[in-house]
Amino acid sequence: xxxxxxxxxxxxxxxxxxxxxxxxxxxxxxxxxxxxxxxxxxxxxxxxxxxxxxxxxxxxxxxxxxxxxxxxxxxxxxxxxxxxxxxxxxxxxxxxxxxxxxxxxxxxxxxxxxxxxxxxxxxxxxxxxxxxxxxxxxxxxxxxxxxxxxxxxxxxxxxxxxxxxxxxxxxxxxxxxxxxxxxxxxxxxxxxxxxxxxxxxxxxxxxxxxxxxxxxxxxxxxxxxxxxxxxxxxxxxxxxxxxxxxxxxxxxxxxxxxxxxxxxxxxxxxxxxxxxxxxxxxxxxxxxxxxxxxxxxxxxxxxxxxxxxxxxxxxxxxxxx
Amino acid sequence: xxxxxxxxxxxxxxxxxxxxxxxxxxxxxxxxxxxxxxxxxxxxxxxxxxxxxxxxxxxxxxxxxxxxxxxxxxxxxxxxxxxxxxxxxxxxxxxxxxxxxxxxxxxxxxxxxxxxxxxxxxxxxxxxxxxxxxxxxxxxxxxxxxxxxxxxxxxxxxxxxxxxxxxxxxxxxxxxxxxxxxxxxxxxxxxxxxxxxxxxxxxxxxxxxxxxxxxxxxxxxxxxxxxxxxxxxxxxxxxxxxxxxxxxxxxxxxxxxxxxxxxxxxxxxxxxxxxxxxxxxxxxxxxxxxxxxxxxxxxxxxxxxxxxxxxxxxxxxxxxxxxxxxxxxx
Lengths: 321, 330
Hints:
The complex is a heterodimer. Chain A is α/β, with parallel strands linked by helices. Chain A contains 12 helices and 12 strands. In chain A, a hairpin with a 5-residue loop joins strand 11 and strand 12.
């Protein structure tokens, strides 16, 4: 359905070049939930913005790669053609619903705008659609909520409205960028369930971007783990969680606190995420990696295949096998 | 480090703490109601132990931290440090106690002065507790930075030159400067990435073992709290709903809200699930809550009595307290 191939996006400053995305490839198949996991600054949000063609340029610059939607390269489209893709074929839900919703327009204004950009319909028809959308995302008494302004809604409800807007034109692919990070746990659980339900009833593909491995375990069919602008490991959820073959993924999983790990020291990955304008040579993870050998410092690691779509970028662990 | 110790090993006790904030409206700013941020809370923290305070946003957990430090004055109730009631104390009399209690905030960037070097920021705290010698202070700063695993040269840099995790280390160094016994940790790792979060958690744990510190650990993250705490208190709209030693809390949670929280955590460990219908709706506003149990609006087990009769925390066994009619029965 959606396939990102060797995408490179650099942010060019006066004195330095930040290589935000350094040749990332991933794909989302029809009706599948794919999670892009990584820590802040690993390039996961930039890659989502690139799919929609909304990377701020300059300073951003696409240095290479393709974004294919049903075989068509979105990076070749001009602004007008891209408008037809955004919202209608690919829709996005952002992290902070309060800043993505316009505070001076009602909920109805904003959802109907999303519909009218792509479709001609009468006022009555649009209102009906709005109500149905709000009902789909589980907002109680939607008729009354239409006249509300964003500030009158709670955080969870705002995020539901954002999702309703994204659903407005029945997109094939929905990209959700940390949509539950700002929410309380009980509300987060509701929104996650909503995503799962919607995906099943509407048969869309979902690209879910998050740093939270707990969320990932709950919703993903397949996972891509990102580090410093590249994909370091990919595979089915069970592969990644039970049989990870990359030291970074293993480190992340081991450093999750939980009550069952009480008593002992928590595993932690030493050091810091590298500065995107000053990445180490060779494997970008080698300064923090306990398995690193000499060649890791020089040679950029290949992808090693473990079968069934499980692929990892670590020669050391591959050769140990 | 010399610390005066009372006979019991309870370092801090909070009794019947209440804090109501007025809600004003209109031209004359007349009070139209109250937000009961903290509504009768009892807590005890033991020497060298960690009390985890969990709850969703707006439940009053941060307000409790501020009340303990006397950054806010309670409307009712007492905060006792080593048995000494702090409520009547003047600012002058509070000074020696301020040395004993420190706080670490969620966002260390917001709590460090961007125009001061890290060294100056840490020294400021040392000066206020009367460390006069310049050389002595410099030495202490270097020692503190080392304790939080930063290089002593870090003292010459400004806060913006550090990453989030490093800034949190600086925040911890600053708190440790005055040799406190109790540290209030207000969501200290919520803003950090997973790999950095575990570094800070380990550091907090090491420092506790090394220095015998006591923590009040305020967080919304049950995974972090479960890992660090000896005792856990769950808050909802200004009330403690359940209070139990960590093992009991996870093995035998009783309050429906606790169960809902536990089932809502997206767990990365399969088989670590509790089954209960997850909660509908949002956390209600603490403004003029209905009578009876505060959780009634979202509780799957709610019955008539919950809407009418106030309920207090009842002990169900030693050290395990629950505020729920369904659990306690008649």
